[in-house]
Design brief:
By secondary structure, the chain is α/β, with parallel strands linked by helices. The protein contains four helices and ten strands; from the N terminus they run E-E-E-H-E-H-E-H-E-E-H-E-E-E. The chain has a seven-stranded mixed β-sheet with strand order 6-5-4-7-8-10-9, with helices on one face. Strands 1-2-3 form a three-stranded mixed β-sheet. Helix 2 links the parallel strand 4 and strand 5.
């Protein structure tokens, strides 16, 4: 004969009521920024006079424009002559849209995340610019990549481009890839971005 096991009990959990509008409260922390001629911000903020607006609702994809790596890429974009461009790892489309607003064409956006491609397409349409959504990198003059260092280094040798703006890594890191050399570097808050050119 077996002794009866004591009944399983449940701990009492204290529950607090959630304030109304909690799902939109994150918006209070998402503000626009000005980088050179560009202003990047959400649709609920007023665009400053005299700037080129890049209005982006990040929604379901990563990328608001506020991160130092994004700012560095936007700085470097404004220092080169507009040409054809592919945004590798486009996220919410900030860099693609900014490039199109700066006169780059054609502009293509590439990402492994289907949601990112959908959000980029939506944001591009909201900004009235043409960004082609692609699943393979097209031939272009310039690539922009704000992604992890190992991904940058792995993709660079295969990209059919002549120059690249790369970021997404710390100041202590420098992308190295056969056939590429850094011709410009910017740093901000411990992060870095490079302008790279093919050597051959």
């Amino acid at each position: 004969m077996y002794a009866e096991e004591p009944p399983i009990g449940f701990d009492v959990v204290e529950v607090e009521e959630v304030s109304e509008g909690w799902e939109d409260s994150w918006r209070a922390f998402h503000h626009g920024i000005t980088v050179g001629r560009l202003w990047v911000g959400p649709p609920w903020e007023e665009v400053p006079a005299g700037t080129i607006p890049v209005v982006v609702d990040p929604g379901r994809a990563f990328g608001t424009g506020a991160h130092p790596t994004t700012r560095l890429c936007l700085e470097l974009l404004q220092d080169v002559e507009p040409s054809s461009l592919v945004d590798v790892g486009c996220g919410s489309g900030v860099l693609s849209i900014a490039a199109a607003k700066l006169g780059f064409a054609p502009v293509a956006a590439l990402d492994l995340d289907e949601v990112a491609l959908e959000v980029t397409a939506e944001n591009a349409a909201a900004n009235g610019v043409e960004v082609e959504i692609v699943t393979e990198p097209p031939r272009a003059e310039l690539a922009v990549m704000n992604i992890a260092l190992d991904v940058v280094e792995g993709i660079l040798p295969t990209l059919p481009v002549r120059t690249a703006i790369t970021s997404g890594y710390l100041v202590r890191d420098t992308p190295t890839a056969e056939g590429w050399v850094s011709v410009d570097r910017r740093v901000r808050d411990g992060w870095a971005a490079d302008m790279l050119a093919r050597t051959g």
